[in-house]
Structure formats: C-alpha cells, structure tokens
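URGENT: need a sanity check before tomorrow's submission.

F., can you look over the Thiol:disulfide interchange protein record below? I want to be sure the sequence and structure line up before it goes out.
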Amino acid sequence: MKRRQFLGTVAGTGALLASGRLLADFAEGRNFMRLDSPVDYGLEQGRIKVVEAFWYGCPHCYSFEPLVQEWKADLPEEVEFEYMPAPLNDVWALHARVYYAAEQLGIVDALHQPFYTAIHEQGRQMRSESAILRFVNQMGQDPDAFREAMRSDSVARQVGRSAERVREYRLEGVPSMVVNGESVVSASMTTSHEQMLEIVDHLIAEARG
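Structure tokens as predicted:
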C-alpha cells in the first residue's frame, strides 16, 4: 500500500493525499457516515482516536490486518489507535474475550496475528474455550493464566463495553473504523481495504484541521 501524508488543509480545497486524491472526493453518506450522537472519549485537546472494529473469524478483517499494521505504525503522535473486537454474537464475544485477555496479560503481540492465522490458514475454528487454551499453550503461553483472564470480571466488563460501543457506532459489520467517535467507515462503503484507510486518513486530516 502506498504510504500517505498528513498535509493539513490547503486553501479552500482540502488536503491532498499521497495518492493525489482530493479530500473532497470522499463524501459523507457515500464513503463514510456521521453519527448523530458522537461518542465522547474524553480526549485531551488536539488528540484524535481511531478505533477498528473486527472479528478474528472475519476473512476481510484477516486480509485487512497487514495493511492496518503498516498504516498504524506511521500515524502522527496525536493519533491514538485502538482495536475493538465486536461481540455481535456468542462466538464473536468469545473471541473478544481472547483479545482482552491477551491485552490484560500483555501478550497481544504474541497472540493477535497467530490467532488470525490459526483460523484462516490452519482451519481451526476456535469456537470453544478448550480449543483456545490449546492454542495458547501451543504458543508457549500459560493456559491457566489465560483461562483466568478470559473469565475475569475486568474482561467481561471490556466485552460489555465493546457491545455498547457497537450500538453507539451503529455498526452492522466488520471491519469498520471509527474516527474520533463521530465518523464511521465500513468495508461496504469502500472499493478496497486501501481506500478504506485513505478515507480514514481524510477524516483524520479533517479532525486535525
């Protein structure tokens, strides 16, 4: 994916992305949605937050992830990025517990991509706690500690918060990205994963301007 530049606004026409696309080319209602009731993150002045809603079992999220990894590594300092597993049903909620348990134990980097790989390249369903704990053990992590984290009240609260955010963001599918709790970009509103990130860049530039 071609890297982008955050150039700020340019006299009445908007910023120009690295691809040469004018920000004005992206339209509300066609390429992104504004929320009627924005979510307040309580950010300090000048800070911007981008959230990616995902599910480990989603093939589109799996193919999107390498681009997200490259993209987020080059975000400006004032832009925060957050993964948000979307618990839209019981299996998705189980996988949300996997992410938040890994986060609680400080092993997201060790498990995040391998968990995607296990599902999409190795054909492992990961639809039960026992299957997940076997995977955790195979990755050289402590399955007992992981089970405890998955069942913890703190992880349950995080999954509950994600379910609430899904409703507030009015999400109907994944992957979706939310900028500053007010603008939503979904895969169905774009022609490619690369364009999805271009639109997010547009919204970040708009927020910075």
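My own read: Residues 153-169 form the longest helix (17 residues). Residues 117 and 149 are 22 Å apart (CA to CA). If you see anything odd, call me.
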